[in-house]
Each structure stands twice: as C-alpha cells, then as structure tokens.
Design brief:
By secondary structure, the chain is α/β, with parallel strands linked by helices. It has two domains: 2-71 and 91-162 and 257-337, 3-Layer(bba) Sandwich (FAD/NAD(P)-binding domain); 166-254, D-Amino Acid Oxidase, Chain A, domain 2, CATH 3.30.9. 40% of the residues lie in helices and 25% in strands. The strands form three sheets. Strands 3, 4, 5, 9, 10, 11, 12, 13 and 14 form a nine-stranded mixed sheet that branches. A hairpin with a 2-residue loop joins strand 4 (70-79) and strand 5 (82-96). The site of flavin-adenine dinucleotide has 34 residues, from helix 1, strand 3 and helix 10. Flavin-adenine dinucleotide is lined by residues 6-12, 31-34, 41, 44-45, 120-121, 141-143, 145, 147, 169, 206, 273-275, 279, 281, 284-288, 290.
C-alpha cells in the first residue's frame, strides 16, 4: 500500500505517523512546501478534551505534546472595560505551532514516514517527482488553500464564502498571565483581541475588527505596519510597551474563508483537516478537529479488510456526523463575532459574557452551572 500525503501540517504528519505505526510495511510519504523549521502562526490552543483523543490514538506523541503545552486554568473576558474571570473546568493549554509540528514530525520519522520538505505541489501530476503519482491513496492535508481539493473541487462539491470581519495572527513577547478576550471600542470602531501565553517567552495575539470599523477608520488604506501600530495603541495597557510581531506572513490581515466540501472522497483522493472544512479560529479547535480527521481516516484505512474504496467510504460515513457537529459550532461562533458591534452596544458585561459562552448552542444554563459554577454565580444564572 502506498499513501501520498500532501501537506505536513498537524493533520498530515499525524496521519502519516498513525498509518506507519499501524502498518510498518506500507509506504507513507508526506510532501510539505515549508522547511522543517518554519510554519505560519504562533501558538495554538489545545483543550484537554482534544488531547484525550490524541492520548487514545498514540500515547507516546501525546505525552510529548502535553509536556510542551503551557497550561491555562482561567480565561478573562473584558467588555466595556469590565473583566469577568472564568475558571476553566477542563484544563486547556497552548503550544507553539512549530513545536507541535516538530514533535509530530519526530514521531512520524521515527515510525518510518518519509517527509519531503521545501516541496510544493501545484497539481497531482507533481507527485510523479517522488514516484507517488500511482499511490493507492492521495490525501489532501494541505490546509485552507488545498491544491488537491482545488483540482477536484467539482467532484468534492466544494463551496466558498468569506466572512466580513478582518483578523490578523500576531505573536508578542509580552507573556500574559492567562488567556483573555478583550472587546474594546476605540474612535467609533469595534475591536477584539484574543491573547494567551504559549511559552515562557511568547504569547499569541489574534486581532480582529468588523468590516465597518475597517473602512470607517480607514484601515483599508493603511499599511500593515500602520494597522499593527493601531492595535498596539488600542491595547497598550495590555501590551505594556511590547510590540506585535506579524511573523513572516506577507498577507497578515485577512478575512476568514469558509470552505466546505459536500463529498470527502473522490476516487483515491481524500481530504482531511482544513482542506476539507475550514474551522474558525474562535473555537480554538481547528488543530484537534484536523487531527481527529486523521485518527478516523487512519482507523478506517488500517482496519479495512474490504479494500481501499470501502475504507474511504467508511471514513466519510462514520466521521462526517462527528465533524459536522464541531463545524456547526464553529459556524455559530463566527456568526456571533460577525455581529460583535451589536452585542458590544447592546449588552452589559455580564449579559455579554453569558451570550458569548452560550453562542454555539453547546453550552446551556445547566452546563454553565455544572461546569462553570463560579461564572454561573457571577452571572446569577439559576437565581431567577
Ligand atoms: C488566526 C488563527 C488562529 C488559530 N488558532 C488556533 C488555535 O488556537 N487552536 C487550534 O486548534 N487551531 C487554531 N487555528 C486553526 C488551525 O491553525 C488549523 O485549523 C489547523 O492548522 C489545520 O490543520 P491542517 O493540518 O488541516 O492544515 P494546516 O495546518 O494548514 O497545514 C497544511 C500544510 O500543508 C502545507 N501545504 C499547503 N499547500 C501545499 C502544497 N501545495 N504543497 C505542499 N505542501 C502544502 C502547508 O505548508 C501546511 O504545512 C487558528 C487559525 C488561525 C488562522
């Protein structure tokens, strides 16, 4: 069995490792456009619920990932300059994206996966460069701009749309005490910063504003540097003089692309992770959703006695409802952010936090009271 995986992000590396560990005699190769010491983005949040699935799938890499994760037990939400602190029921953590990839790569290599770095494919024909054009399975693990998905977008039934809010993924040397979401009005604009520490020397800082703010404050006319300075000014109290680092990405400010594919499989081509469905960053779970796809696909490929076609079919049939629940939560979450100016104008800080916590429909009053008792008390839930 020969498996070609395009993309050495979390989903591609994890899939490669799981396949090779499960079937050491298979040929499993990953083609990745970046060198092994570079990636986009800074730290990513990985909640404990997500990590438990990784533990079940592969204890060895799980232990190392946990060891490299900075734990958060609290989150603060600030609206109208009023902070409300939330004790997190499940410990969450953040890990540098590069560390995450390097750990996964180490375990993939140890299992015997071949990884081709600095190699971008422009079409499936390029797989011939490594003798992978006749692979039994070709996996599109190549993220939001997937070449594999694009090549068969009609067959996958792919749809595209773009959210209106604008966001940028920064890092900063300010090591925040804990994870926070700070909603702030500034010169008539509506802004949000989501920041969290992910190492002893760095924090992630995701900056966001709505489209009306983008044009009314002439951010559309600004250079990236000017936008960065604007955010440094708006959040100067939090940053305490530290700069925002845009990293190497050239297009730092973006609008989130919503990409969905009706079909997950086309012949021997199959999609996982963001290539299949882009998960909005506001639920902080895109990485684990992507790695869960890899767990499901590896299980079906390794466990199949009825051939590859049946295994790929089983992957889609079995895993789709599970993934769709998480993607639906991500959709409700981004719709909430798309209207954040309305909520910032309309709600008191307590009401705002309540609406935020219940925005995806996955948390109701009962769950708030059982899992976030301190918050439920602050918000006076269940006292009417
Ligand atoms: C601002 C922001 C903040 C986020 N924060 C979090 C967070 O806190 N927690 C979380 O879990 N998720 C977060 N995410 C989401 C997370 O980054 C993604 O959901 C996750 O990386 C998806 O993994 P993937 O393996 O499917 O794709 P990717 O991570 O995108 O990996 C795809 C890989 O394929 C490679 N590639 C692409 N095209 C080609 C090609 N043609 N040839 C060869 N290689 C190619 C890329 O270089 C990349 O390495 C965030 C995203 C954003 C934008």
């Amino acid at each position: 069995m020969k498996v070609a995986i395009v993309g050495g992000g979390p989903s591609g590396l994890y899939l490669g490792m799981l396949l090779k560990k499960g079937a050491p005699n298979w040929r499993v190769e990953v083609v990745e456009q970046n060198p092994s010491d570079a990636t986009f983005g800074f730290g990513v949040v990985v909640a404990d619920t997500g990590l438990m699935q990784l533990k079940q799938a592969d204890d060895e890499s799980y232990e190392e990932l946990v060891g490299a994760t900075a734990q958060h037990d609290r989150q603060v939400i600030v609206q109208d300059e009023t902070p409300i602190e939330i004790c997190l029921p499940i410990k969450g953590g953040a890990i540098p994206r590069l560390t995450l990839l390097q750990i996964l790569e180490k375990h993939a290599l140890k299992a015997g996966v071949t990884i081709h770095h600095n190699q971008r494919i422009e079409s499936i024909d390029d797989l011939a460069r490594w003798g992978l054009d006749d692979a039994d399975v070709v996996v599109g693990a190549d993220g939001i701009n997937s070449v594999i998905r694009e090549q068969f977008s009609k067959e996958f039934g792919t749809t595209y749309s773009t959210l209106s809010n604008h966001f940028a993924w920064y890092g900063t040397k300010k090591v925040f005490e804990t994870s926070a979401l700070v909603f702030r009005k500034y010169k008539g604009g509506y802004f949000c910063a989501h920041y969290y520490p992910y190492s002893e020397s760095m924090s992630t800082f995701v900056a966001e504003c709505d489209d009306k703010t983008w044009t009314s404050l002439a951010m559309d006319q600004m250079t990236n540097e000017e936008r960065t300075h604007l955010f440094e000014k708006i959040y100067e109290n939090e940053l305490e003089g530290h700069e925002l680092d845009p990293g190497p990405a050239s297009k730092i400010w973006r609008q989130f692309p919503v990409i969905r594919s009706k079909h997950w499989v086309h012949g021997r081509y199959v999609l996982v992770g963001d290539a299949l469905a882009s998960a909005h960053f506001s639920i902080g779970s895109g990485t684990r959703i992507a790695m869960n796809d890899s767990i499901a696909l590896a299980q079906d490929l390794l466990g199949s006695n009825d051939g590859i076609e049946a295994a790929l079919e089983a992957y889609e049939k079995r895993h789709k409802p599970i993934k769709q629940k998480l993607i639906a939560a991500s959709e409700k979450s981004y719709l909430w952010y798309e209207n954040m100016s309305e909520w910032m104008d309309k709600y008191s800080p307590k009401e705002f936090v309540y609406r935020f916590m219940t925005r995806t429909g996955r948390v109701d009053d009962e769950r708030l009271m059982s899992e976030f008792p301190d918050l439920a008390e602050k918000l006076e839930i269940g006292e009417q």
